[in-house]
Write a structure and sequence with these properties.
The structure holds two protein chains of two kinds. By secondary structure, chain A is an alpha/beta fold. Chain A has eleven helices and twelve strands. Chain A folds into two domains: about 15-100 and about 180-320, P-loop containing nucleotide triphosphate hydrolases (Rossmann fold, 3-Layer(aba) Sandwich); about 110-180, no CATH class. In chain A, a hairpin with a 2-residue loop joins strand 1 and strand 2 (about 30-40). The longest helix of chain A is centred in the middle third of the chain and has 18 residues, at about 195-210. Chain A is globular, with a radius of gyration of 20 Å. In chain A, about 45% of the residues are buried. Chain B is an all-alpha fold. Chain B has a domain at about 100-260: MetI-like (MetI-like fold), CATH 1.10.3720.10. Chain B has helices spanning about 1-30, 45-50, 60-75, 85-120, 125-140, 145-160, 170-200, 205-210, 215-255, 260-270, 275-300. Chain B starts with a helix and ends in a 6-residue tail after the last helix. The chains are: A alpha/beta, B mainly alpha. At the A-B interface, helix 2 and helix 4 of A face helix 8 and helix 9 of B.
Chain lengths: ~325, ~300
């Protein structure tokens, strides 16, 4: 039914195929991710965009094996062409320690308030005697300096509450880079921060990619952020990928009605609009399984088969969309 | 930190003074006297007795003399009911006993309680969790005065493994049942507090961060979750301490251990004012000191609390 999107011939770092994540809740099973397929290539920034509840964070957590206890993932997740979905916890822990790092939404709650920053930064590097304490400390201070934390040598021994939100996020990013990961998953890294600080963090992420060649999977709902640093973009809705392609392509020639509606909902200074266009209606209830396209209830271009038949991924040249109707570019 | 500690100690002193005056006033206002018996004493004898113990003086004078003796000599005066002994002697004899089984019960309830709670939280929704919850609910509904006879019934009368009472200088067979009977319900409360607090902590964002660093789960629990999860337990230590003291009344009576708990009740029945006062003040001072310790511990553990 669904064709596998093959974006280009380059070897993928991370390959997700037909991933589904289901949560077992007292009210019945909830499918948060529903048949997602995507690739992340070495050194690229892939933005995963969607509203809250679209399954983007759960996709990321499934990759690192950090789903909540009541969550289960099915499908395939390959890291360097070897399957990692269903690996035992100690193997996944090693993967997280060495290759896939994560940065989370709220830096104020993501660091342990009871431990000094130095302890939290150094512990990952000192796992299994990889580094000695002085080595780990030196590396941490150096990394803090590289994310523009002034006076890092003395401030590293402070507690998280002694830093501002923006600084904490830079510390989080520094901490995640210490182990020289191949992939950094940043889950809404700017959402909890002041607008003025958001730009600093975005620039920092861009720098990280440029300097260390770390691939970044950037999860966000902020299209402006996406436009500024991502190479490719995946638009998610109700646990599925609606459209995926090169950022410029998707922005200039969106194929999916949802992508269009999303782009029209972004305020722009270069357009003179009386009122911002929202998307009418609500996202579907995650407890109800939709046989067709999850967007059909809100779609302006709805066809008769949209409610019942799931649209396959369609497209070419690395630009795919899941819609029965191919919108003219 | 030092400033905070000194300030807290400075507050503790008037607290203890107020405690002394209040308990003295309460006792003074209670009807009857230690010398009212079935046969009333002749008025001259009564007057002599009251003069001897200073009971003929005005209330403020009595309080002042009493406090002064404690402050200068730490002397609680003679006991009224034990004629040849002072309150200090009685306390010196009973207090080490109470301290021995009390601190063991304290340690046992903390170690077993937190251990059980952490295990239940970490292995949540497994048989271990159910077992831990079952044990703690069961133990919760067994206060010391129920626990004591049950233990004696099983281990002394049925199995004959342990002596049913006595102290013998605190040899371990004599210690086991008093400690367990006293500790059980507190252990259960601590286990429940630890479990729910650990479950909450394990759902925190910073635990997800710690796990995303690839730390082994054991290290995540010990290094990242332990401190925040045990903070509510520390707040519960104050009430636990007081509960252990009052519990010692039951233990002393039930197991004839000879601690100061028994004097608590007997002195009140005999209207032995100096002994009641002595025991009350001693426990009051310990409680104040203990709460001081808990507060300092709190500040030490949570870097965000600063005074």
């Amino acid at each position: 039914m669904r064709s596998t999107p093959r974006t280009d011939t380059e070897q993928a770092l991370l390959s997700i195929r037909d991933l589904s994540v289901t949560f077992d809740t007292p009210g019945g099973p909830i499918r948060a991710v529903d048949g997602v397929s995507l690739d992340v290539h070495p050194g690229e920034v892939l933005a995963v965009v969607g509203e809250s509840g679209s399954g983007k964070s759960q996709t990321a957590l499934a990759v690192t094996g950090l789903l909540a206890a009541n969550g289960a993932a099915e499908g395939s997740i390959q890291w360097h062409r070897s399957e990692i979905l269903g690996l035992p916890e100690h193997r996944l822990a090693r993967l997280r320690a060495d290759e896939i790092a994560m940065v989370f939404q709220n830096p104020m709650t993501s660091l342990n308030p009871y431990l000094r920053v130095s302890v939290q930064m150094m512990e990952g590097m000192m796992l299994n005697g990889r580094m000695t304490r002085p080595e780990a400390r030196a590396a941490s201070i150096e990394m803090l300096e590289s994310v523009q934390i002034a006076d890092a040598a003395s401030r590293i021994d402070r507690y998280p509450h002694e830093f501002s939100g923006g600084m904490l996020q830079r510390i989080m990013i520094a901490m995640s880079l210490l182990r020289r990961p191949r992939l950094l998953i940043a889950d809404e890294p700017t959402t909890a921060l002041d607008v003025t600080v958001q730009m600093q963090i975005v620039r920092l992420l861009g720098e990280v990619r440029r300097k260390s060649g770390t691939a970044i999977m950037l999860i966000t709902h902020d299209l402006g952020l996406v436009a500024s640093i991502s190479d490719r973009i995946a638009i998610m809705y109700s646990g599925r990928i609606m459209e995926i392609g090169h950022t410029e392509e998707v922005f200039s020639r969106p194929r999916h009605p949802y992508t269009r509606a999303l782009l029209e909902a972004v305020p722009r200074l270069d357009r003179d609009e009386a009122e911002l266009q929202g998307i009418a209606g609500e996202p579907p209830d995650p407890e109800v399984r939709i046989p067709g396209c999850p967007f059909h209830t809100r779609c302006a271009h709805r066809l008769s088969q949209c409610a019942d038949i799931r649209p396959p991924m369609d497209g070419a040249d690395g630009h795919f969309h899941a819609c029965h109707l191919s919108l003219a570019p | 930190m030092l400033h905070y500690t000194l300030k807290r100690i400075a507050i503790a002193v008037p607290t203890i003074l107020i405690l002394i005056v209040l308990s003295f006033a309460l006792m003074h206002s209670a009807p009857g006297s230690p010398f009212t018996g079935e046969r009333p004493l002749p008025p001259e004898v009564l007057a002599n007795l009251e003069a001897k113990y200073g009971l003929d003086r005005s209330f403020p004078e009595q309080v002042a003399r009493y406090v002064w003796r404690i402050v200068t000599d730490f002397d609680f005066g003679p006991s009224y009911s034990h004629h040849d002994r002072t309150v200090n002697e009685i306390i010196a004899q009973g207090f080490p006993v109470t301290l021995t089984y009390g601190s063991l019960a304290f340690l046992f309830s903390i170690l077993a309680g937190t251990g059980l709670g952490i295990a239940a939280a970490v292995y949540r929704k497994t048989w271990l969790d159910s077992l831990a919850v079952g044990v703690s609910v069961g133990a919760q509904v067994l206060p010391n005065f129920i626990m004591a006879p049950i233990l004696v019934l099983i281990f002394t009368l049925w199995l004959g493994w342990l002596p049913g009472g006595g102290w013998q200088g605190g040899q371990w067979p004599y210690l086991i049942m008093p400690v367990i009977a006293l500790a059980t319900s507190f252990m259960a409360s601590i286990a429940r507090i630890t479990r729910s607090s650990m479950i909450e902590t394990l759902n925190s964002d910073f635990i997800l961060t710690a796990r995303s660093k690839g730390l082994p789960f054991r290290q995540v629990v010990i290094r990242h979750a332990m401190k925040p999860a045990l903070l509510p337990v520390i707040s519960y230590l104050g009430p636990t301490f007081v509960g252990l003291i009052t519990g010692s009344v039951v233990i002393d009576i039930y197991f004839s251990t000879g601690g100061i708990g028994q004097h608590f009740v007997n002195a009140a029945i005999n209207r032995d004012y100096p002994l009641i006062m002595g025991v009350t003040i001693l426990i009051g001072i310990l409680t104040v000191l203990f709460n001081l310790l808990v507060d300092i511990l709190y500040v030490w553990i949570d870097p965000r609390i600063r005074y």
